[in-house]
Each structure stands twice: as C-alpha cells, then as structure tokens.
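Cross-check.
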Amino acid sequence: MRDTRESRLLLVLLIAIAFALITVDIRGGEDSPVDGARQAAATVFGPIENGVSSAVDPIGNAVSAVRESGDRHDRLAELERENAALKAELGSDDRGRSRLEQLDKLLKISGRGQYGIKGAQVIAIGAAQGFSWTITIDVGANDGIKRDMTVLNGDGLVGRVTTVGPNTATVLLASDPDFTVGTRMEAGDELGFASGQGDRPLRVELLNSKAEIKKGDRLVTFGSQADKPFVPGVPVGVVSRVDPSGGDLTRTLYVTPFVAFSKLDVVGVVVQAPEKDPRDTVLPKKPEPTPTPTVTVTVTPSAPADGQYQQEQ
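Predicted model, tokenized:
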C-alpha cells in the first residue's frame, strides 16, 4: 500500500475502531459482545498458533535448558566453593586440635621432668641450612634461645639447637648422622651413645659389652655437663634389635626413636634444666600386655558297659 492521504485516514480509522472494541470488551467482561468473535478467531487461528508454537518450542526449550544449565553450573560452582571452604575450615579445626594435643603432651612431659621450656613451631624442614636432618623453629635469641639447648616434644628427644638468629633457630635432629647423645637404659645404669642414621633406627653403642639388654627396653638421655647440650631424663626410644656380643669393648643396639621426625610441628626448647635428674619418670607408661586366653579341659570318666559290670561282680 502506497503512503497516500487515503491510506493514512484508513489507518487512523482502524486504530480508532480497535480502541473502541477493546473498550467495549473490557466493560462487557464475560458478557462482552465481541466474545463470539474472539472464539471464532480462536477457532480459525488456534491450529496455526499451535503449529507455530510446536515449531518454536524446541528452540525456546533449548534456550531455557541452556539458561538453566548455566544456573545449575553456577550453583554447582557455588556449592563446590562452599564445600572447599568447609573442608578448609574442618582441616583447620583438625590441625588446631592436633596442635592442642601436641601442646598438651609437651606440657605434660615438661611437667614430669620439671623442664622449663619455650614453646615453638616448626616453620621449615630440610637442607636449607646445609644439613640433611634439621628444622627451623620460630623462636630465637629474642626469646632467650641459645646454642646447645635441648629440644623435645610430647614424645621425647627431638634434637639440639645449633644456630640461633634473632627470631628463629636451627635444630639438628637426633636422626642426623652427625648427631650423638649420651643415653642411659631404663631402670639401670648402663650407659651408651646414640647416633642418628637418617630414616633408620638410632645406633647405640653401650659401654658395657656384657650388658643384658633385650628388645623392648627403653632409653633416656644421660645428660651433659652443665646440662648442655642435653638435659637428663628425656625419652629417646625403644630397643628394636640387639647385636650379639662378639667380644668387642662395646655392644651395639638399634633403637626406634619415640619421636616421628617427619611429623614435627609443636616443639619445646628447654631453657631451664631440672634441679635433679628425673630418671625414668618422663618415660611413657608401658603398654599392658594382652592376656593370653587359657582353655581348661576337664576329663569325665565314662560309665562301664553292663557286661563289664557283671563280670566284675
């Protein structure tokens, strides 16, 4: 249709009629005079709308699915973030509980031995300081730490301080091959020297080659002159093997240390030695042996047969 004066008038007229019909329809409600026309239109155009809807719905459904998929993906990502945060929080709580347990054991062992300690946390481990078996702790000269102080944890002997900085210190672990400490056997006076062997048990040379030692016996530190580098009574380990005596001047033992050197976190530096040797009081209680069940068999004599009884009569 060309844009003429007549076409514009027709358009205005159609718009006016449309507004009039809309007004009448609204005012009439359910009794609207155009309701029949609406139904007729629905009858004519309904199938067409349904076909168009069937053609368009898959596209709409796909768009909706993609949108919902995106929403689910965002929600999943949010849940994963929340789960990771909860795991981190739980892990933090577990670590906190672990440290509390370690600190509790450390306080108990220092109390039994009457050691004055300075608590510390391991902040580095490895060869950064030029040693094979060392740790760095977060206390130093500003905290009263000095060279050749004993370091322990809730299980026993950790090592000795070798280098001290203003706020950190390096500890040579008892497992290091250059480490040596004087030892004493539990409930006795058999002395020896324990040396580190890396991740293998400590090697102990007893001064008495004829000493009666068996697997399961325990050792503590003997102590050094002026209590440096070692204070007495710190648990060292348990005898795991005894070499047979071959007529040597010393006897060789292999000792599993109480301390797990690969799992160090909370430790204590002994800044004040005990007034007297605690001897074996710092050692943990020995596990009670598991009782072996015994079976008692009672034999009941059987009754004689009738024929045998008559013959005896």
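Helices lie at 5-28, 35-113, 306-312. The first strand starts at residue 116 and ends at 125. Passed to J.P. for a second look.
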